[in-house]
Specification:
Elements lengths: L2 E4 L9 H11 L7 H7 L10 E3 L5 E3 L2 E9 L4 E7 L8 E6 L10 E4 L2 E4 L2
Parallel strand pairs: 2-6
Antiparallel strand pairs: 1-6, 2-4, 3-4, 4-5, 7-8
C-alpha cells in the first residue's frame, strides 16, 4: 500500500466531517492504522509542520467520533485525533492511496481483434 498526502486548500474552514464527505466521493482512502505506519517512518510522508489525517479510520474519544492524525514536532512523530466538527486548516493534509498503477497501463488494449480504450 503506497500512500500520498494532499492539501485540499478549497476545504480550509470546513469541518472535518465535510472534508471526509468530499474525500469519500473523490479518492480511495486507506483503511487501518496508517498513522502508526507514518509514525514508524514507513510511508515517505515528510517530517514537516503539517498534520496528516487518515480519513479512512475513525476513533471514538471522550464521547466524540474523531479523525486520527500524525504530526512532526521537530524531533518525533506525535499522534492524536480531532473531532469531526473541528475545522480543516491550511497545514492539514489528507492521506490517500497513491493509485499510480492505472497510469502505467496502455491507453488501448486489443484482445481477439477487439480494441478496448481506457477512459
Amino acid at each position: 500500500m503506497k500512500l500520498k498526502s494532499i492539501a485540499l486548500p478549497e476545504m480550509v474552514g470546513k469541518t472535518l466531517q465535510e472534508v471526509s464527505n468530499h474525500l469519500e466521493k473523490t479518492y480511495t482512502l486507506p483503511a487501518g492504522d496508517v498513522i502508526d505506519e507514518i509514525c514508524r517512518g514507513d510511508t515517505g510522508i515528510p517530517k514537516d509542520e503539517n498534520k496528516y489525517y487518515n480519513f479512512g479510520s475513525l476513533v471514538f474519544s471522550v464521547g466524540n467520533w474523531c479523525i486520527p492524525f500524525a504530526g512532526w514536532d521537530g524531533s518525533s512523530w506525535i499522534r492524536s485525533a480531532y473531532r469531526l466538527g473541528d475545522g480543516w486548516g491550511q497545514l492539514d493534509r489528507a492521506i490517500i492511496l497513491d493509485d499510480t498503477t492505472e497510469s502505467t497501463l496502455p491507453s488501448e488494449l486489443i484482445i481477439n481483434g477487439v480494441t478496448y480504450v481506457r477512459k
